[in-house]
Amino acid sequence: MKTIEKSKVITVALAGNPNTGKSTIFNALTGGRAHVGNWPGVTVEKKEGYFKYNDQNFSVIDLPGTYSLTGYSVDERIARDFIVRKRPDVIVSVTDSTNLERNLYLLTSLLELGVNLILDLNMIDIFEERKGEIDINLIEKSLGIPVVLTSGLKNTGIEKLKDTIIKTVGNNQDHLKIDYGKDIEKAIENVELQLTGINSPYPRRFLALKILEGDIEIIEEVKRQGFDNAVKTGVYETSKLEKEFGFDPETEIIEKRYGLIQSIVRRSVYKPAYAEEKLSTSDKIDRILTNKWLGIPIFALMMWITFQLTFTLGDFFADSIDAFFGWFSGLSSGWLTEINAPSWISSFISDGIIGGVGSVVIFLPNIMILFLLLSFLEDVGYMARAAFVMDRIMHAIGLPGKSFISIILGFGCNVPAVMSTRTISSEKDRLLTILINPFISCSARLPVYLLFTGILFTKNQGLVVFSLYTLGILVAVLSAKLFKSTIPILKGPVSPLVMELPPYRIPSAGGVIIHMWERSSLFLKKAGTIIFAGVIVIWFLASFPLSAEYAGEASLAGQLGKFLAPVFKPAGFPFWQAAVALFFGIIAKEIVVGTFGTLFGGEGKLAAAIPVYFSQLSAYSFMVMSLLYIPCIASIGVIYRETNSWKWTAFSVLYSVLAGYLSAVLIYQIGSFLL
Ligand code: GDP
Ligand code: MG
Question: Among 154, 328, 532, 576, which residue's CB has the most CB atoms within a 10 Å radius?
Fold first, then answer.
């Protein structure tokens, strides 16, 4: 057996289609906690972790899920670039063993990259439960690479995988070379000839194939290096094949790959009829959930139930948090009087910390419940169906079906939602999807709604909040329509939805809870950092100059607010506290609540102050304003990062300011007229 230097860190990359269990295997290998989820686009950035085995150090990379390596989408480019530029020692191709035909397509591209491969047949627990059988030897022989069976869920086969990784390092695998048939092979050869001497991390045959497949990125790269002749030869060979044989090489190449996979799978995998039966249960459910007429009402109902539960269950817990803060506030003020603390410290603690941060943290149970329910729907596999159902509507609007996924993610937080657009292959569709996402009501807006509806709309809290979420979607959709018809580079047809429906799974309770906790803890972390800092600034502004009354009009906050407040007169909330809240809400929307908490001083007082300042109508217009008026700082940052353009970032900010303000004014004015 060969020896590997112990000091060397072995890099292992996990590649595979979305939803095959890459992140689960990543977690099993590293003991890490990569985000696991039952739909595409969850892992949007590669993730790295480490483990030690047999005294050997390993570094593992969880690549984003891709169906091929054509470089059509950002995801595919990330995966491809990593594989060819970082040259990991071993690539583990994670596949869903219950769906091998489709899954192995990616493997064919990996084979062509000439890397050291291991085929991981994951989800073997399901496969075995369905009494399937696999002739591993035959697959290994056919492909020329080692095969390992694993279950990420049951944690089986992981040791074997580690052993196989060690055995694979440093091999010069002599694996299957796909034969594309005489004519195409001739064309590949001719293009390859023109590539002699090129300095590229890609094998020449791979480059030649990609040129024939019309891969824009590879063509650019080859041109950059001055090998224009290879591209010309590619164009020539392509048209020759088209003319002489009546087929376009790209389709033919793809078909050959599928044909090859099929023949391998047919010979080595046995799937009993049971598998079909199992599938048909899933199909039966799908027939209802994705039904042409029922699909959308069912989706609306699901969301409605989700929000109802968020309040009814959440309020139940919120009372205990409220009680805790009451107790804490009493305790601390008692203690502060006892030690004769200066009054500004008492004010800082009771108004700043308890009033400001406390008024936000009180909504933690609601947020946890919302995330718990969304995680559940996601892990069961329902959200992917929702995207499927919405695809038709999305198309009618001129949006790709995949942007619906980012809309759903936006309910949680717009930042990952904007990042998830990386799975959208058309740049135009992607930009459009990014631009409308900030209107989707993220969880940071929820405390604002809860604060107002809890006090002013007690009878129909669920309905009012539901209407705000719907309004967010509506504004997003109308904006998309507007952008598409007015901005030239966004025009044009949208690409069709290519997304498979993952099978329904009963999610593990642990998984759902971890999932929920990851997101909720982000909220808590935010409360402890950004919101805390924001509230301190506001408390400070409310306390100075010292001559002024705390949170009075003469304080700095009061002066700032008074300067801005007239603008909001037509929207129905012309008092300075609202202006300050909105001003600082740009940092994070929860700060809107935190600001009121600080300025009105503490829990009980806040609830008493709201009805004094707001009517139902002006509260609604204020909530609409909070929903739409601007993406928070983090969202603005990610919009810039993903569009890579100040112009679009500025556009997004200005447009939402306008949309928020106009909507609030419109609602208030029409409302005042009618009521
Ligand atoms: P990724 O998109 O490839 O990263 O896939 P994930 O790791 O996020 O897993 C997708 C879903 O499949 C999750 O719900 C996992 O719990 C589930 N899953 C992963 N591996 C297995 C497995 O071996 N068996 C079963 N039954 N489920 C699995
Ligand atoms: Mg993943």
Answer: 576
pTM of the model: 0.67
Residue 258: Cβ within 10 Å count = 14
Considering the domain boundaries, does residue 660 fall inside one? yes
Q: Are the beta carbons of 424 and 403 closer than 8 angstroms? A: yes
Full residue range of the structural domain in which residue 601 is found: 296-497+510-674
Instruction: Give how many domains the chain has, as a whole number.
Output: 3
Residue 77 CA to residue 258 CA, distance in Å, equals 22
Structure tokens of 500?
């498979």
Tokens representing 374? 């969304």
Q: How far apart are the first and last CA of the chain?
A: 85
Q: By three-state DSSP, how is residue 547 classified?
A: coil
- Tell how far the Cα of 20 is from the centroid of ligand 1, in angstroms: 6
Residue 39 Cα to ligand 2 midpoint, Å, equals: 9
Give the Å distance between the CA of 24 and the centre of ligand 2: 7
Confirm whether 450 is domain-assigned: yes
Cα–Cα distance, 191 to 419 (Å, whole number) = 37
6's tokens: 């112990």
pLDDT tens-digit series, residues 608-651 = 899 999 999 999 999 999 999 999 888 898 899 889 899 999 99
Q: What radius of gyration, in Å, describes the C-alpha atoms of the chain?
A: 29
Cis peptide before 545 (omega within 30 of 0): yes
379 and 459 belong to one structural domain: yes
For residues 215 and 314, state if they share a domain.
Answer: no
